[in-house]
Structures are given as C-alpha cells and as structure tokens.
Design a protein that fits this description.
This protein is mainly α and 446 residues long. The chain folds into 2 domains: 39-150, Cytochrome Bc1 Complex, Chain D, domain 2; 192-432, Cytochrome Bc1 Complex, Chain D, domain 2, CATH 1.10.760.10. It is 37% helix and 4% strand. The strands form 3 sheets. Strands 1-2 form a two-stranded antiparallel sheet. Helix 15 (367-375) crosses helix 17 (423-432) and helix 16 crosses helix 17 (423-432).
C-alpha cells in the first residue's frame, strides 16, 4: 500500500514536471498575435519614431560591423562560455527578418524567442526590452521593415561548445530572470522620473553593463527596486561604474546637468566616455532628445547609493597637489608619460582631458584603468566631428610592472581611494585585449 502511494506521488511529480516543462518551452504570447499579417504601412511618422527607438536601444552598435551594411550582423561578442555573433536583422527574407510578422518581431525583442522558436542568448538584452511599450515595438518594427535596406548575409554559428550551445535551457533561464512586461509608471513619481525610468530600464538597457550579474550570468536586478540595480559591474575586461549616487564610486558629485552633458557630448568636467560606452555615445545617447536626456539625468540622480557603495566622499587634498615629490615607484612614469596631459596635480584639462584626481575609475576595480593604459581609448565622434583628444595605448612602452606601478600611484594620489593592482592582473588583461582602434567609426542607420 505504501509502495503504491509512493508510486502515485512519484507519477504525480513527474507529470507536474512534464506539464511545467511544456509550459516553459511554449511559444510566448504576443500582444500582436491578432494584428494583421504583412508589412506595416509606409507611414513616415511611424518609421521616424521607430528610428528613434532604434537609437534609444543602440541596435546598430551590436548588429553591425564597421565594414558591413547597417544591421546585417556579424559582430563577435565574447561570453563566459564562448563567442557568439550578432544576427542579420535587415528585412531580407532569406537571411534576415523579412518574414517576421509584428508578433514574431515582438517575441524576439521582448521575449527572446526567434520566429522558428529557438531561444535567443541574453546577450540580446530582452530582459530590458520587455519593458518597451507596444507603441515603441510597433514603431521599431515599421522602421526595421521599411526604413532599413535588406541585405543578404548569412548568420555565423556560435563558437559555444556542446552541450552549452543547446538553446532549450534558455527557456528556464528566461522564466527565472526575465519576468515582467511593459513598463508601468509609478504613481508616486513625476512624469520626468517615469520617462527616465522607462528609458534607462527599457530601451537604454543600462543595466546590461552597469548591474552586477549572478551565477547564471543574470542581472541581479532589472529596476530601481533593488540596490543592486546599476550598482557597478565587471564585464568583459571593463568595470562599468555605478550609476547611482554612491559617495565615492558613483555619480554623487555629478549634477543633473553633468549627466546631460556627458550623454550629449561624451564628456563633462568629471569624465570622458571609454570602453563600450564610447559605442553607446557614438551611436545612441548623443542622438537622444534634450527632454529624454534630462529625464535620464533626473531618474539617475534620484537613485540612492547602491550595494557597492564604499569609501568616503572624495575631496581634493590641497597639501598633495602635485606629483613632483615623493618616492612612489610609479611617480617617475607618471611624470614622464601622463603629466603633460593630465597634469602634475591630476586635474587634467577639462572638459577635453579628464581629471584623474577623483575619477571614479580610480576608486573602483582597476580593470578599466588597466585597459585604458594598455590599449588607449577608441575615437569619440561627437555630432559628426572626430575627437582630437584620444588616449594613446602604452602596451608597447610600459611593462606589466610599470603599468601596475603608475596605476597604483594614480589610484592612491590626490585623495583617490582605489585598491592597488599588480603586474599579474595587468598581464592577464594584456593577453585578453587588443589596442583600441583609432579609426573614425560612424555606423549609419540607413
């Protein structure tokens, strides 16, 4: 009798597991499932709105290569389990998304499911894009179908080894880490805050880089309800700093106008874009409307300190205003290689050459500062004009030890509170990275 009862329990559990698995692997519903089939009407206003949504989402930066057609894919992206390549999202019928209906498109963008049912890797930021409004999804679809030239280009297979390249487990990942729907305005906040939250949490997908990840490579939070959201994260050899008002490691010293200037010009009195933020600026943020930039700034400046908040608020100590004295092993390298631009006092020549005194990158994980010293910075292109002030690479001029020493000098001078790094960390990043391109790269949308 007990065995029979146990058998019934086991059978019930197996049945429940089977039902749950089928439910998880189902094709998710779309709010556009009953929309008319066929390509959208050729509405100039709708296409223009969709082009702006594409700018907000920075779609062109990932789905294009410098020598390829817009949105034709092929960009290699490193992941912890292997390299993947972005796909062709031009409206080509055979190799792109030309046969996608609006519902198919919605499922790919907001749910991470392709037209044939396979799951997309979360390098595609659908956990953030799920917050897009129906109106913005429809407009984006209109632009991709009517405003983008179809290009025949086969997609490249991933380099993720079996069994990690199986797609079906991504359904379980999505169920666990991509819950939610279109952004819902918070009644306790004003319209400006809500617009900023929509842009940052949704199309801007800022958390993809700036939010720490869990063991399953999931963002630990998707909105301001958690102190982990935008609290700073290490990603692909760079440290994306906190966008919260952390005393020493975030943007507490920035005003709303500083945030607007940074996103509009690529620099402000505190910092200059570097790493993947250069691509985001070149192809996205500088094209945002002033109203949207103000909304983003208002939202970010309203965020309290996050989970990575540490250290006291930085202050410039007048008693150590120059690097001309002292016995730190990195001082001589700094004076020979860095001081002509960044100054013996570490204050730079703002806004063109950023200060190192008080720089957020000098208070947090050293990966970004190592990367910039070794590889230099990519070319900023502001409003069609290439930046004349570019950080050159020093990987050939400085050894691993010299790089660590000069960074440790900077990270402990002028009131900076960064932890020291070492030659081993520099050597590891040297092996994994390449010099930044000095080319003027402008990715066209059409």
């Amino acid at each position: 009798m007990k065995l029979k009862r146990l058998g019934l329990i086991v059978a019930g559990l197996v049945g429940a597991a089977a039902v749950a698995t089928v439910w998880l692997l189902r094709t998710p519903a779309s709010t556009f499932d009953h929309a008319p089939a066929g390509k959208p009407a050729d509405s100039a206003d709708l296409i223009r709105q969709g082009e702006y949504v594409a700018r907000l989402g920075d779609c062109v930066a990932c789905h294009s290569t410098p020598d390829g057609a817009p949105f034709s894919g092929g960009l290699a992206m490193a992941t912890p389990v292997g390299k993947i390549y972005t796909t062709n999202i031009t409206p080509d019928d055979e190799t792109g998304i030309g046969r996608y209906t609006l519902a198919d498109f919605d499922r790919a963008v907001r749910h991470g499911v392709a037209r044939d049912g396979h799951r997309l890797y979360p390098a595609m930021p659908f956990p953030s894009y799920q917050k897009l409004s129906d109106e913005d999804v429809a407009a984006l679809y209109a632009f991709m179908m009517q405003g983008v030239k179809p290009v025949s280009r086969q997609n490249s297979p991933t380099e993720i080894p079996w069994p990690l390249n199986m797609r079906w487990p991504l359904a379980l990942w999505s169920a666990a880490f991509s819950r939610g729907g279109p952004y819902q305005a918070q009644e306790s906040q004003n319209a400006l805050w809500n617009r900023g939250a929509y842009l940052v949490e949704g199309p801007g997908h800022c958390g993809s880089c700036h939010t720490p990840r869990g063991l399953a490579f999931n963002e630990k939070a998707l909105d301001a309800g958690s102190q982990d959201y935008l609290a700073g994260a290490l990603l692909d050899g760079w440290y994306a700093p906190s966008l919260r008002n952390d005393a020493n490691t975030g943007i507490s010293r920035w005003s709303e106008e500083d945030v607007v200037t940074f996103l509009k010009q690529g620099r402000n009195q505190h910092a200059v874009v570097f790493g993947s933020m250069t691509d985001a600026f070149n192809n996205s943020t500088q094209f945002m409307s002033d109203d949207d930039l103000r909304a983003i700034a208002h939202y970010l400046k309203a965020l309290p300190p996050g989970s990575n908040n540490r250290g006291s608020a930085w202050q410039y100590p007048q008693g150590t205003a120059t690097a001309n004295s002292g016995n730190h092993p990195g001082r001589q390298t700094y004076m020979a290689r860095c001081s002509s631009c960044h100054g013996a006092d570490g204050r730079g020549q703002t806004p063109w050459i950023p200060p190192l005194a008080g720089a957020t990158s000098m208070q947090v994980d050293a990966s970004s500062s190592i990367n910039v010293v070794l590889n230099g910075s990519a070319r900023i292109v502001a409003h069609g004009v290439p930046d004349a002030y570019r950080m050159p690479p020093y990987r050939k001029q400085l050894t691993d030890r010299q790089t660590a020493e000069v960074l440790n000098f900077i990270r402990t001078s002028w009131g900076n509170q960064g932890a020291e790094t070492d030659a081993k960390a520099v050597g590891e990043l040297r092996e994994k990275t390449d010099p930044a391109s000095s080319s003027v790269i402008i990715l066209q949308m059409r």
